[in-house]
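ok here's the first one, seq then struct tokens
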Amino acid sequence: MTAPTNWHQRALDLKPESKIFINGKYVDAASGKTFEDIAPHDDRVIAHVASADAEDIDRAVKSGKKVFDDGSWREMNPRDKKAIMLRWSALMLEKKEELALLEAVDTGKPIGDTLSVDVPNTARVISWYGEAIDKRYDEVAPAPRNALAMITREPLGVIGAVVPWNYPMMIASWKIGPALAMGNSIVVKPAENSSLSTLKVAELAIEAGLPAGVFNVVPGLGAEAGQALARHMDVAKIAFTGSPAVGRKILQYAAESNMKQVALELGGKSAQVVLNDCTDLEAAASAIGWGIYYNAGQTCSAGSRIIVEKGIKEELFAHLRKFLESFAVGNQFDPATQMAGLVSKSQRDRVNSYLDLIGHDGEKIIFGGEKTRGADLLIAPTLIDNVKATSRLAQEEIFGPVLLSIDARDADEAIAIANGTDYSLAASIWTGNVAKAHTLARRLRAGTVWVNTFDMVDVITPIGGFGLSGSGRDKSLHALDTYSALKTTWIALN
């Protein structure tokens, strides 16, 4: 019998590549500067990562523009492009353990999650968009008989992508997949505390046959590398996932440079509306628990608010307690662990600052709620009752394993509360009445509405929101249009 993998030891033995990836090669930052990549679980320096600045961004963009202009990827036979994308996806699965370990060490995620979710889903997105390459058709317009009017989708050029630390590989793939499928080049700026997996993915792309320069990765600080990418005059579009504060800066940088296209996904304060006619509160509690405590609540669409009709609240809370009895919280290197610590001390301190607000306006802790200090980044799954819909707890994105319960008199008030934040990314409704489900789903202001489930996501459907949750959409065939421009070619036939 094979001995179980000692993931902690493998983490200690890691010697990851930490240079910038430009034009198919690992290179040092032009300045020679590096920054420390810290492992959340033990505060250890994993690597000294090359810190890109404007000069490095310029090198990466020039590399992408050169290969875009020469057409080696843009004009490649679609079948050949598809084959490269499929080989790339297969290589990710072959290297699943290495990629999963890099992701886990960088972010503090449970190794079981990175093995079963992050790497397979990243590979699936790349293969899915690869498969789409030779199955997409353009259009012929109904022009007069003496003319032929064709509408084609043309690649934009060099795409800049700035991705966050909570799902580094997966969210990067949501931008890389459709951008490359449409024939663009791309420059990815990962979050400074989670660059390692994306650097490895870029290496595998070259191994799969992607032309050098099509996909570049430039780790660095946001104020330096991120700003330089968003301001670059040869970047045709910037795709950003992160905070509203940085999203506003991205819009500013785009406006002050070349008016490049901008797509933003900026987070959420997703509501789960649980009505008295919900027929399976145990299933609801399980979905609610997974929806907020998975990845320690560090998910943009996390269901951080439950809006409950009072008649079923106590029973729902009882099922949530029961859910936590079998929900494994602890060591990230134990494959059975389902929730580990937060990504960093600064994020832990942010969550602590919201826990400090409990009780100021009548809030009551049902379970959890304990703050942690020092090296301990594990905040216990928390449920807070009697939260006011207009409070900071209910209005601001906490990004931790903190679930807030808000009372509602009836369905109308529940929908009003659900829509009563500046965020509009996702929401769910729990009801046994199918007509009510359809009616209320239409009234919810959210990019995704689930009925009697939560967080059912796949590359086949788009993700994105309204309001403070941003603009634009990742995933699905619709994303292909966002990385292209419509072009009309009108031919006179007489």
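and now the second one, same deal
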Amino acid sequence: MKFSNPDFAKQELTFNDVFIFQNYFDWKSRLKDTDITPNSPLWTTIPIISSNMNQVTGKRMCETLARYGWLWILPQDMSIEKMIDIVNHVKKAHLVYDTPLVLTKNNNVREALWIINKRAHKAVILVDDDFKPISIFTPNDLEKYEQYELLWNIKKNKLIIWENWISNEDAFNLMIENNISSLPIVNILWKLVWILTKWNTIRNSIYKPTLDNKWRLNLWVALWINNFLDKAKRLIEAWVNIFILDTAHWYQKSMIKAIQKFRLNFWDSPILIAWNVMTSDWTEELIRAWANWVKVWIWPWAMCTTRMITWVWRPQFSAILDCAKKAKEMWWFIIWDGWIRDPRDLSLSMVAWANHIMIGTLFTWTFESTWDIFYDIDWKMYKKNYGMASKRAVSLRNSEKTAFKIARKEIFVEWISDSKIYLKDWLKSVWNIVDKFTTWLRSAMTYIWAKTLDEFYDKAIVWVQSSAWYFEWTPHWKIKK
């Protein structure tokens, strides 16, 4: 990457300060002619990971993201028992098919509607005592019945199912012919095992899953920098091979000691990521301490008020560029976490040579995030969100302590404790975000004729704009609130 004017490199720049200049183009298809696979040892096929926030990443988010080439991070606040449970679930999950929502003959419409939004396929399958599928229900099928009507009593047309394996195109055509949106998948005993949706057949033909070295869906796990050894040992035994050491401000003795302790016990086989930094010097310090990756993060936007209140920060684009250049010199990598809002944030961070970006809040308003769905007085769906240093997070994290000790910690809380995140029609599922972000990243790459992300970085010319230029770029010259 280079600036149109070398003097711009000396400035501290935000994302709104810069734009990418277009280049000659000589291709026909942005899907066939662009490769968005990151150049990194994380085995991802898309350069995006989910945030390790309690209200974002759980079992549903984990398997969905991994199926489409992203990665997810289990939050460090989880108990080891819960972590092991999720790891085992994901390692057993199918690489292509989704996990079904299942109810039995004793369940009613109310119970079906309660769980139907747990997964984006929005289908509940009724099974008999032998776990063989009987009927499949969508919200449209259920809304006309009384809420306590038993599913067993609801008559439906003949159920279309498929055994074991079916090609994406054959499955798509089968669902089109029978006017259905989901296809239950059974094993040789005709017991329900998975579910496949019509649109997922399309996505399966485009995206590739993120796998570990045993060809299972892969994952990351976050750990606090204190007292992490026992957790790490059990997780390594469960085949976790990527770890994060998390603390808001890495530039401290405790972080360096934590990295050294991790390497002393586990050597170099697990990949270790440490954060947070905002300068090349700090990036170098963590890599020399034997971290493989570092994360660039300066408390921007969303749930975190630290930056606004302390005024400790650095403009995002300059921070990424500075840290990424140092990591590249040392043959290692960076992740950028800066409250991604739009696909252009992904494009600009790739131009600045971030290897991956992290999404948090944007994933909160999807069916796959950990929270249950709530409804406001207008029956609009929303989920709740809170910061990881907020009063709520601190209280949950220290629930075993005395009330007095919890109260002492709550004096020093930061971030927002409660926020409503409304589900948007075009972003209700991680699937939608996958499609939206990868489409526009590929489009940005075609504008400068870059086949790979490395070419995107090498060929990009970045210009700096005035506030008037930025204003002119916005839809109808209105800045989105």
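notes on #2: The two ends are 30 Å apart (CA to CA). The domain at 2-95+209-368+425-477 is CATH 3.20.20.70 (TIM Barrel).
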